[in-house]
């Protein structure tokens, strides 16, 4: 609408009304002009009211139409609003992506103001400190973590170093690395890394090194003691019998160290090789060599019973399974007193799973020891294990082999009544042997 048309139309109407008055001496022109002006002004007022209504919340209503001279204003405003809307949705998308990334961070993050009042935290923080959005937003962080050491750390002016802090969550102990960071004016972030797993691994490694040293120290001490005695005493101070006895004892200790080192190497190989072979195993012939070993070890002191399904298929590593099968069998011989019975089973159990189990009528194991038996160097009776030539690593190796074959090592035992050690393999997928 061009603004100058209005005065032109209005001037033409005035001239028309004046002409009617002058030529016909009739005021009808003026009356029509007054009525027309009234209608025109009312219509314009109505259009202005429509625009004002819309302008009160332009982003929620459709822009008004037929608003005469306001159309241009409405159009411009509407374009501006659309542009703002697009900008807003773009920035909402960016904020959403940033928040999703912060939520997905594997480290815990808590955002706070300068007074340590919590304004936001991510999922990892929620799990690490057992936080809940509905109750903990707005709380002071020092009401949630009250360890004096942490309170002191939080009150520092700057945080050049992180703080390592133990926390307890229910019955679980956790080790967290905490680091404050300041941002914006006086906002704070608390970054938390969970070190529990790393700490556990480190403890296991330390225990393992201590255990290995301890296991090797005893035979080494015995061996070097004999050597020293023999070197420092004149040869004639020992009878031939004594010399043979000393040499036998020394050899026994050397064998002992050899077995420990051999088992450690086996464990390390199992840990370092990616996965077990998947070749078809001839279980009956594998059990035949295990039988020969066991019977040689038993020397006729035990009775054996064999229940072997010759047709049950199995895929895996021949050497690993041979070691696991014979480990369980020789343990049964070593921990079953003379005239005990040992039963070996290879077949399907009632659930259709393939099961290798060795049942003995031996010394049995008290319930509290059973969950720990497959830990490295764990023995119920250290002296008895040593006397039987054990290294304390056999079940750790067997369990490792079981895991590598998707099998489970199941131990059932009653003190004084005997034990059953089983390797339970998952049923074959789609009828194929695994
Ligand atoms: P070890 O070389 O000492 O036999 P293992 O790892 O093979 O080490 O076994 C760990 C411990 O489990 C043994 O020291 C023994 O106390 C117990 N154990 C294993 N097999 C039997 C069994 N058949 N009967 C009773 N105790 C057993």
Blueprint (SSEs and pairs):
Elements: H1 5-24, H2 28-56, H3 71-104, E1 108-112, E2 118-121, H4 123-129, H5 133-136, H6 141-144, H7 148-154, E3 163-169, E4 172-183, E5 187-194, H8 196-232, H9 240-272, E6 279-280, H10 283-298, E7 303-308, E8 315-316, H11 318-334, E9 341-348, E10 354-360, H12 382-387, H13 394-404, E11 407-414, E12 418-425
Parallel strand pairs: 7-9
Antiparallel strand pairs: 1-2, 1-5, 3-4, 4-5, 6-8, 9-10, 10-12, 11-12
Helix pairs in contact: 1-2, 8-9, 9-13, 10-11, 11-13
The structure holds adenosine-5'-diphosphate (ADP).
Notable characteristics:
434 residues; alpha+beta; Beta-Lactamase; Helix Hairpins; 4 domains; five-stranded mixed beta sheet; 13 helices; 52% helix; elongated; binds adenosine-5'-diphosphate
Structure description:
The protein has 434 residues and is an alpha+beta fold. The chain folds into 4 domains: 2-99; 105-194, PAS domain (Beta-Lactamase, 2-Layer Sandwich); 201-271, Helix Hairpins, CATH 1.10.287; 274-431, Histidine kinase-like ATPase, C-terminal domain (Heat Shock Protein 90, 2-Layer Sandwich), CATH 3.30.565. 52% of the residues lie in helices and 18% in strands. It has a 5-stranded antiparallel beta sheet, sandwiched between helices. The chain has a 5-stranded mixed beta sheet with strand order 7-9-10-12-11, covered by helices on one side. Helix 8 packs antiparallel against helix 9, helix 10 packs parallel to helix 11 (318-334) and helix 11 packs antiparallel against helix 13. The longest helix is centred in the middle third of the chain and has 37 residues, at 196-232. Bound molecules: adenosine-5'-diphosphate. Residues 331-332, 335, 360, 362-363, 365, 373, 379-381, 385, 390-396, 419 line the site of adenosine-5'-diphosphate.
């Amino acid at each position: 609408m061009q603004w100058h048309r209005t005065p032109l139309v209005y001037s033409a109407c005035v001239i028309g009304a004046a002409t009617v008055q002058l030529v016909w001496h009739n005021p009808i022109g003026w009356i029509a002009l007054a009525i027309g002006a009234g209608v025109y002004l009312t219509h314009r007022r109505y259009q202005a009211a429509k625009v004002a209504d819309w302008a009160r919340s332009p982003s929620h209503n459709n822009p008004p139409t037929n608003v005469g001279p306001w159309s241009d204003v409405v159009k411009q405003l509407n374009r501006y609003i659309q542009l703002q809307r697009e900008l807003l949705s773009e920035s909402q998308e960016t904020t959403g992506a940033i928040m999703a990334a912060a939520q997905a961070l594997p480290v815990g993050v808590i955002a706070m103001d300068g007074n340590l009042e919590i304004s936001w935290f991510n999922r990892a923080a929620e799990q690490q400190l057992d936080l809940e959005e509905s109750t903990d937003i707005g709380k002071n962080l020092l009401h949630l973590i009250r360890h004096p050491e942490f309170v002191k750390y939080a009150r520092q002016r700057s945080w050049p170093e992180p703080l390592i802090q133990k926390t307890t969550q229910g019955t679980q102990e956790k080790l967290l690395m905490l680091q404050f960071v300041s941002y914006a004016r006086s906002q704070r972030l608390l970054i938390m890394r969970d070190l529990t797993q790393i700490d556990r691994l480190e403890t296991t490694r330390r225990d393992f090194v201590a255990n290995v040293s301890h296991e090797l120290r005893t035979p080494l001490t015995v061996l070097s003691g004999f050597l020293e005695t023999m070197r420092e005493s004149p040869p004639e101070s020992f009878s031939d019998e004594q010399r043979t006895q000393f040499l036998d004892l020394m050899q026994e200790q050397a064998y002992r160290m050899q077995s420990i080192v051999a088992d450690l190497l086996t464990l390390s190989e199992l840990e370092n090789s990616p996965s077990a072979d998947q070749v078809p195993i001839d279980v009956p012939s594998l059990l035949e060599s295990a039988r020969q070993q066991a019977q040689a070890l038993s020397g006729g002191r035990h009775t054996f019973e064999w229940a072997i399904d010759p047709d049950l298929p199995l895929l895996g590593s021949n050497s690993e399974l041979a070691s696991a099968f014979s480990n369980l069998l020789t343990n049964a011989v070593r921990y079953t007193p003379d005239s005990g019975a040992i039963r070996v089973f290879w077949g399907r159990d009632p659930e259709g799973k393939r099961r290798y189990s060795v049942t003995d009528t031996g010394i049995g194991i008290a319930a509290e020891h059973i969950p720990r038996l497959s830990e490295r160097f764990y023995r119920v009776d250290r002296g008895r294990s040593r006397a039987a030539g054990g290294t304390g690593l056999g079940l750790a190796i067997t369990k490792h082999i079981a895991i590598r074959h998707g099998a489970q090592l199941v131990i059932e035992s009653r003190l004084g009544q005997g034990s059953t050690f089983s390797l339970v393999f998952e049923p074959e997928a789609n009828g194929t042997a695994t």
